[in-house]
Amino acid sequence: MVTILTGGQWGDEGKGKIISYLCLNDNPDIIARAGVGPNAGHTVVYKGKKYPLRLTPSGFLNKHARLLIGAGVLVNPDVILGEIKSLGIENRIGIDKRAGIIEQDHIERDKKSDHLATTIGSTGTGCGPANIDRANRSLKLAADIESLKPYLTDVPLEMNEAINAGKNVFIEGSQGFGLSLFYGTYPFVTSKDTNAGMACVDLGIGPRKVKEVIVVFKSFPSRVGEGPFPTLMSEAEAQRRGIQEFGTVTGRARRSGTFDFELAKYSAMVNSASQIALTCVDYFDRSYAGVREYDKLSPKMREFVEKVEREVDVPVTIISTGPDLEDTIDLREEKL
Ligand code: GTP
Ligand code: IMP
Ligand code: MG
User: Fold this and answer.
1) Count of domains observed in the chain
2) CA 251 to ligand 2 center in whole angstroms
3) 83 in ligand 2 pocket by Cβ < 6 Å?
4) Would you state the pLDDT for residue 250?
5) How far apart are CA 69 and CA 151, in angstroms?
6) Domain range for residue 250?
7) Residue 247: per-residue pLDDT
8) C-alpha 321 to ligand 3 mean position (Å)
9) Is 282 a catalytic residue?
């Protein structure tokens, strides 16, 4: 069975947290990373330890799963080799031989370009310029890089063989709907589509193989970088609520806002969402922090969850009440 998880807003919805929870609980055979590249910063917190990840699949805490990175994902060799070493995943990670490579020159072009660095507010990780070179057909691929040789594989072949053998495959996207090159708030977007269909392409599987699509929404969405934010709240309000966040990759302050039902509905439609994971409900009221049972949420909080379900017309199956992967309410048994 194949499950895809994507972001429904402007990234940083807490995908890393939800992915790690699901991968520890559901025990997939393969956990595969789709999405743009190391512009992402996923945060996984488990038993008090924090793992900031940029390329490694966020489900890595499951020690039995094979970890894969698709051809559609840009790879910075320094970043992935650093993560492989520090996480000790040498024996179970595979990178598609056709993944595009980010070099120092891409990072410099990203940072020096007034258009990318200032107008768009890119992460400066070289992803935009590397995708420009890929479209120009001049980008190096993983197969050209000596230090990546031990990890190279054919990801579509591994994925499709596993799926056909009835194994469980979990696919994680990065960024979010609002940053899609095609459907987001262009030009204030990333350099590729970020939705579930693209995740299939990134990893070389067809859409007929996918069973579930989980879209992650943050109760108070955030946005880092430039671009419109219709439900933006003032900085003073974000501070009053104590929900001010800073980017994992760039350290920049994230803008915060209230839940945008229109955006959620449209992004669930484009992703063909079958489930919603709702994160950061503790931002409403700190007394919800760490709650693990639905009945322990207040009636007002449950009303919000039900409104999300009703407006988006997709069941909310996972609710996150804190950064630790155990701070989770799992409603899948009753909702699916
Ligand atoms: P990208 O791939 O970069 O889009 O990131 P992401 O979706 O994995 O999210 P990221 O880890 O960048 O940001 C989410 C932040 O919220 C992290 O600091 C998480 O630890 C934290 N977080 C996740 N879920 C919850 C939650 O339910 N409550 C609280 N308080 N924090 C949460
Ligand atoms: P780029 O992907 O680095 O070119 O950045 C383009 C836009 O997408 C900027 O507004 C970034 O802040 C935003 N962005 C890219 N990746 C992420 C992410 O993982 N989380 C949140 N915003 C992102
Ligand atoms: Mg992030």
Assistant:
1) 1
2) 12
3) no
4) 84
5) 10
6) 2-335
7) 86
8) 17
9) no
- pLDDT value at residue 40: 96
pTM score: 0.98
| Residue in 106, 99, 102 with CA at minimum distance from that of residue 73 | 99
Q: Give the domain CATH number at 279.
A: 3.40.440.10
pLDDT in tens, 148-159: 999 999 999 999
Ion ligand 3 residues within 5 Å by Cβ: 12, 41
Is 74 within 8 Å of 37 (Cβ atoms)? yes
Neighbours of 160 (CB within 10 A): 17
pLDDT of res. 193? 98
Is 254 near ligand 1, meaning CB less than 6 Å away? no
Segment 90-131, tens digit of pLDDT? 999 999 999 999 999 999 999 999 999 999 999 999 999 999
